[in-house]
Amino acid sequence: MATEQEQKEASAKIAEKLEEIRRLTKECESIADTVGVSFNWPEPAYGMGGYYISKENYIRDYLDPDDPDYAEDVKLIMEAKKADYDSGWGWKASSQSC
Known about the structure:
Blueprint: H1 4-35, E1 39-41, E2 50-53, H2 55-62, H3 70-79, E3 90-93
Antiparallel strand pairs: 1-2, 2-3
């Protein structure tokens, strides 16, 4: 059984690695947004992954250019700093595609 000190050290290492994952994920988002691609990440286990839809992909694949609100919708999407659950772009749980 691990000592209390070993548990604290392990927890600190895990927190450090998770922060690294968060930083790398943000890097991936930035790359995707820069060129307008989407990507998925099926980790850490089956059913727990997700996919990222860039703003440009969402605009191209899901908005209708003939819609009278198209220009305003594109403007709002491009100005948004963060996606929320109802946004068509950003991170989506893999289960949302079922």
